[in-house]
Amino acid sequence: MANTAELQCPRSITEEDRARAQIYQLLAVLLGGPPSGELLNGLASLKGDDSPLGSAYKNLAALAERTSPHDAEREFNNLFVGLGRGELLPYASYYLTGFLNEKPLADLRTDLRARGIKASEGVKEPEDHISTLCEIMAGIITGEFACDSDLPSQKAFFDAHLAKWAALFFTDLEEAQSAVVYAPVGSLGRAFMTVEADAFAIQ
After folding, report:
1. Which of 81, 107, 149, 152 could bridge to 77 as Cys pair (CB 3.0-4.6 Å)?
2. Virtual CA dihedral for 40, 7, 111, 123, nearest 10 degrees?
3. Residues 102, 105, 22: CA angle, nearest 5 degrees
């Protein structure tokens, strides 16, 4: 995908896998904090087509072009922070059990330990935050971590920690009352989760 930070891949990967990793990394950045002016400018130059992913890119570009960093930050806070809690709770535990810090988080931590993946220092969010999961998927695809990065490894992580809830979260984001520039982020995430699930299903 054009106009996102170039990923430094520890191993040689295909252009398709590089594009997949870049989408995961873009979602991770957008869902991990409010977009900077620089990122909004980059998003404004995205190109799309008539596919679900391409349509999401075009809508995101159009909205990013007329969204200020201040408005983007306010929208992000309304969606994910709020005065106690935001409109959405982007955690696997919440979507799968209705509560935070439940078994899905414990299962994820067990999996991360087995894969030798450690949480970044200074990160306060539980590891089952959608941003963290997208960042981890990008890292697995590019071989950033010591664990296996082949398709079976990617599929196992996706099936265990994203397949059961991420598309629903992105649909909720797409339709959220506070979402303006984040509505096409929801569309992008929903379409991409569908593409990933379909691709992994035939492995």
Report:
1. 81
2. -50
3. 140
Q: What is the mean predicted confidence (pLDDT) over 34-44?
A: 97
Q: Is the pTM higher than 0.85?
A: yes
Number of neighbouring beta carbons within 10 Å of residue 199 = 15
Q: What is the pLDDT of residues 127-153, one digit of tens each?
A: 999 999 999 999 999 999 888 889 999
